[in-house]
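To fix ideas at the outset, we first show an illustrative case, written as a sequence plus integers encoding its fold:
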Amino acid sequence: MYSYFNMQDFIVNGTKRTPMVRLEEGIIHFSGRSVPSNPALFYQPIFDWINEYNTKGLVATELIMNFEYINTASTKWVFNILKILGKADKAHEKLKVTWYFEEGDDDMFDLGNIFQSLVPTKFKFIETKEKAIPGRETE
């Protein structure tokens, strides 16, 4: 089966307050800290892109969540993104979620488990050593 996906890739460089985001056919990737001063301003274009992506028919997609830290306001946006992707036809087959968390960070591990309980797909949990977050630039 061929995929005729014509959306432009969407890339946001990370800062000290916002994650690196890479959106393209087959890959949705978040990495870094998510403590934006205005989460709606940051996440709305990302949400819109993913919503449009989903309406075109979800192709096999890997969602990579590698948050160093995520505040409550950002958590709401991530939940809404997961909810949209989870509603896609055959999401349980097409959507693969990889959730990274640092060694000993029980809060991030627990958050991943909460998100997993809300969508019809299994998460792959990967524990990492503390490290520099790729894609983050200085402010």
Q: What stands out?
A: Residues 21-128 form a domain with the Transcription Regulator spoIIAA fold (CATH 3.30.750). Strands lie at 10-12, 20-24, 27-34, 61-70, 95-102, 123-128. The CA atoms of residues 92 and 121 lie 5 Å apart. The chain is about 35% helix and 30% strand.
